[in-house]
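Below is the record:
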Amino acid sequence: MRRSLIFDQLSDAVDECERLLASGYVKNGNWSLGQICQHMRLTIEANMNGYPTWMSVLGFPIRSLMRRFGLPKLLAGKSPKGLMTAPMFVPPENADDAQEVAAFAKCVTEFLSGEGELHPHPGFGSMSREEFEKFHAAHTAHHLGFLQSAV
């Protein structure tokens, strides 16, 4: 069973990760809290530092469709489950929850305090910093929806 989560801002996602770490959680999907946090950190870092060229080239043919139809669904909390991600964003099974929550929180702080240009998403293209924050918050909500608080 998946929870329906919507975060207004990326810091809300960090708060939820810290809450789940403190309370404990039950997995209703494939990834642990540590794996989700590592996946999110890697995707945000790619947004700040740049995606591999091959991702942009492969994403180009379907970018307009993904932006028009996929992005609104993700932002509305209706992201489909089971989509494959690039191998570079797949976390190892032994990701440590506490370490990865801390690393994700640090990454979010860097993202929110950053002033540099963000790199276009391979599937959704260019967005403003505010739009990317909403995207990353929605992406995190999608993944954290597969975890239930143990309390």
